[in-house]
Here is the input.
Amino acid sequence: MTYEKSCGAVVYKADQGQRVYLIEHMALGHTSIPKGHVEEGETEEQTALREIKEETNLDVKLDTRFRHTISYSPYPGIQKEVVFFIAEAVSDSLVNQECEVSALEWLPYEEACAAMTYDTDRETLAEAKKYLDTQKAQVVAGLSHVAIRTRNIMDSVRYYTEVLGLREAFRMHREDGMLATVYLYIAPGQYLELFSNGIREGVTGPDVIGMNHLCLMTKNIRQSYEAVQKAGGPLDTEIRRGQSQCWMFWTHDPDGTRIEIMEMPPESFQAQADRRLENNGPSVHDDSV
Here is the structure.
């Protein structure tokens, strides 16, 4: 008896408010879910990602918490095991691998099941749907911007651009022509929004309820510290290491907003969480464990 192993994934995406699944119409005449043989030295996850890319050209986010295995004998004397994960499409550039796949199609669950040639694929789709139906959707996809009302907007613009090195993205004016808002670029999709004409003084401090501080990330904490120092910006602390194993120092803007500059080394809790959660690992890490 010869044993073979393949890996793949049920690939899905959201389309006009409903979940649709990727179906392969194979050159041999049957329909299938993306999968392929494990090559020497590959992990199951590597095989699944490679096969999806080769057969569909899609980039996907693999969820290995779902793992469904089927076994069958395609030919006499051959026993095959197939491991399926779940994968969310993160690109739209569908291109079929012509030597193996004649066409690719996104279908809602019922239509996808009806299109399947084999019962084992229908079973895999059913298990995948059951799993996805139990997952809680994350409403927030990222941090877009933080908004600060300033006493003097140009003083604040100078601090954030000349001291902290942020770049101005755009400005917006009121109907009377007065400057109302300045957006400062931090990273793709992430901005600091400054409002003008702040009048009422607020209460600030580390123990005040509400917004506590603004944290900006750096790749080199020493370089950032020296840049703020050289620009004449206020330095409220020396560089130190926090409980989460990040390196940080503190400054403040002209209105007293507390600003933390942070570097996240690979061993920091945040960097570890990035790696864990990006691979759909558990959400919580407790430093007391």
Notes: The helical segments are 44-56, 109-115, 119-134, 153-163, 221-230, 269-278. The CA atoms of residues 113 and 123 lie 9 Å apart. The longest strand covers residues 2-15.
